[in-house]
Amino acid sequence: MIMKKNAITLKILMPCCLALTLIFAWRGFSPQENTTIKHSYIQNTQTIENPNTANKPFDFDDFFKKELHATKKETNFQPQKLNNLVNKVIDDPIFKYLNISFLKNNNNINDSFFQKYYNEEQLFKMQKLTKYISKKYSISIPQAEEIIYNTFLQSHEQNLNPLLLLSVISVESTFQPNVKSNSGAIGLTQVIPKYHQNKIQKLDNPTKDLWSIDGNIQVGAEVLKEYLVLSKHNLRNALHRYNGSYNDPSNKYSKKVLSKLNQYQIVYNDS
Q1: What is the DSSP annotation of 135-173?
Q2: What distance in Å separates the CA atoms of residue 222 and residue 198, rounded to the nearest whole number?
Q3: How many whole angstroms separate alpha carbon 137 and alpha carbon 170?
Q4: I need a labelling partner for 208 at 20 to 30 A (CA). Which of 20, 36, 51, 132 fits?
Q5: Coil, helix or strand for 91?
Q6: Where are the domains of the chain?
Q7: Exposed/middle/buried for 105, CB within 10 Å: 0-12, 13-18, 19+?
Q8: Distance CA 87, CA 95 (A)
Q9: What would the pLDDT profile of 177-229 be if each residue is shown by its tens digit?
Q10: pLDDT at 88
Q11: What is the sign of the dihedral through the CA atoms of 168, 140, 271 and 111?
């Protein structure tokens, strides 16, 4: 009796199940498939809204280059748009000295140094060089900026190539202002005080000495200029006088400095 009832039940349920299967097949999906598709759509939407690059540090230099390139390619080129972009660059608040605001607040606004370097092109180049030095030598942006600013300032005073003086600093101290050698050479430019007392005494500010960034670079720039004059502007001889290796036939020191000079010229002039 029970088996007869089960057989009847199966005869009733089977057509119903077959009918439901045909309905879902006709509509093109099943409940399980629908759930999977919906979940996949949500995941894809989240990926679009939160790209993998969202948490990467902002590459300012890369942004500037792309924006500059895009601006130049516009059919209706608008110089004002480019000027606004450049103004944002030179007013970057992370810079104290290499910033157009520094010029506005400085009493020496008509000085030839500011006239030469405080424009859009030169400020951007010095800012770029600062970031390069900071990253390569693991020093802070403020410290790198102060070194770059004073290097360009004192090179201007002594009529030197600022990138040459920067290269000397790089080889002598790797941009560490508090180093002292076994021979008594001090600071960024590794000046030996007993040989250059006349230059040290010309430092015009009580806060300036060989341990300060501005004082050390001022004296180092004078020393380099003096050796260039003594060497009749033979760069190799001047550099080896500076290093105390005048009779080195291998030219090891001058090769190091000139290698750094080549690097900094590429960074500084690459737009």
Answers
A1: HHHT--HHHHHHHHHHHHHHHHHHT--HHHHHHHHHHHH
A2: 11
A3: 9
A4: 132
A5: coil
A6: 120-269
A7: exposed
A8: 13
A9: 999 999 999 999 999 999 999 999 888 776 688 899 999 999 999 999 999 99
A10: 52
A11: negative
Kindly report the backbone phi and psi dihedral angles of residue 186, in degrees, each rounded to the nearest multiple of 5, phi listed first. Answer: -120, 140
Element (H, E) at 200: helix 197-200
Residue 78: partners with Cβ closer than 8 Å, 6 or more residues away: 71
- Tokens of residue 107, six digits: 């009493």
How far, CA to CA in Å, does 121 sit from each of 83, 90, 127, 270? 11, 9, 10, 11
Residue 262: what residue type? N
CA gap 21, 17 in Å, rounded: 6
For 54-111, the pLDDT digits (tens) are: 444 445 455 445 544 544 444 343 444 444 444 555 667 789 889 877 877 776 655 8
Element (H, E) at 53: none
Residues 6 or more apart whose CB falls under 8 angstroms from that of 185 comprise 172, 191, 192
Identity of residue 44: N
What is the spatial distance between Cα 214 and Cα 154, in angstroms, rounded to a whole number? 9
CATH 3.60.20.40 assigned to 120-269: no
In the numeric block, the tokens 């000139």 are attached to 258
3-state SS, residue 180: strand
Q: Three-state DSSP class for 191? A: strand
